Amino acid sequence: MCADPIRRFLDERNPPTPCLVVDTDVVAARAREFRSAFPGALIRYAVKANPAPPVLDALVAAGIGFDVAGPAELALCLERGADPADLAYGNPIKKPRDIAYAFERGVREFTSDAPGDVDHLGRYAPGSAVSIRVVLDAPDSVTPFGRKFGCDPAEAFDLVLRAAALGLRPGLAFHVGSQQPDVSAWEIGIATAAKLFEEAAAQGVEMTRLNLGGGFATTHRVPVPSLDAYAATIASALETHFPANPPELLLEPGRVLVADAGLLRTEVVLVAHRSGRRWVYLDIGRYNGLAEAENEAIAYRFEPVGAAGPAGPVVLAGPTCDGDDVLYQRTPYELPLSLRTGDRVDLPGTGAYTASYASVGFNGIEPLRTYCVGRWGDV
Ligand SMILES: *Cc1c(COP(=O)(O)O)cnc(C)c1O
């Protein structure tokens, strides 16, 4: 009925809602595009964006490495055939025994942002590469990290020297915040890094590795810069700030490799009118897959499957008994006035940070089920 493999699967199999369907061929295509936008860079997919095994399989086949946050993600990547040399342990918050486990499994690339963690790395991951994560005075992303991660440049400098003294191989890292539509954020990061590279060199510590993190945005309702636009800004910032010897780059894309590959199908549970507004309750909400609707930060697209005709404003809410399980009450949305219980609504571009964020059984609702289609599919 439909050429798109995701919609074909939904039409033919009509799986229970809500569900996420991911096209692994699209994941592979995004990986190829990303690689050609950043030739020569080491690419480490941030597994937390979507850890479905077929997604990892498509990325392993595309020659992409992985950014893991802990032992479970690490073990999963190895199980799917990733080479430990292509893994980076990018979470600055980690237990000493998890560092030891990663080292024992062959991981030699870490990120750190505090003296205690650098010391743990020196002890449990001797000789490894460690990128010191610096916090930037950059524009806020749609989902900013706040002050949880990264140290200021002066402390980063101390940590670089500390890491070198412990026999680690220091580099620098930054992360501009997820869903970052402002390409200038990377310019600020690269300028900050270049200064630190120079200062460290003056102390006899030659750094070679710069980790530019993730943050590349994907389009929902508002268009975002193209991959080429990000790449062009990054290339020109590197030319400006590292004119003599450009660093070896490491990139940790998450969302941008998987978001467009996924479509979430949901069903209308109830339509009700409250204080003059039309509320549409869906079987998907903040606790079973749309966590990123918190503060209405990410505004997904909602496409009715059958319902048509004139549209009117709606408040969108999830199915649970939690008062915070409201998706959008400030962001304007319109859906057909004919929309009824049982109608299906599709959310395209939802392959990232949906299934991986679903709770395991709040109100007895099971975590968002993922079906993968395409060459690496599991259905
Ligand atoms: C989550 C995360 C990423 C991926 O971020 P995206 O915005 O999805 O690209 C990359 N690096 C680290 C350390 C992360 O925590």
From TrEMBL:
EC number, UniProt record: 4.1.1.17
Keywords linked to the UniProt accession: Decarboxylase, Lyase, Pyridoxal phosphate
Family: Belongs to the Orn/Lys/Arg decarboxylase class-II family.
Source species taxonomy: Bacteria, Bacillati, Actinomycetota, Actinomycetes, Pseudonocardiales
The keyword Lyase is annotated on this UniProt entry: yes
Cofactor(s) required for function per UniProt: pyridoxal 5'-phosphate
Entry protein name: ornithine decarboxylase
Reaction(s) catalysed by this chain's protein: L-ornithine + H(+) = putrescine + CO2
Pathway as given in its UniProt record: Amine and polyamine biosynthesis; putrescine biosynthesis via L-ornithine pathway; putrescine from L-ornithine: step 1/1
Ranges where the Orn/DAP/Arg decarboxylase 2 N-terminal domain occurs: 27-259
Lyase keyword on record: yes
Highest taxon of source: Bacteria
Top EC class, one word: lyase
InterPro entries membership: Ala_racemase/Decarboxylase_C (IPR009006), De-COase2_N (IPR022644), De-COase2_pyr-phos_BS (IPR022653), Orn/DAP/Arg_de-COase (IPR000183), Orn_de-COase (IPR002433), PLP-binding_barrel (IPR029066)
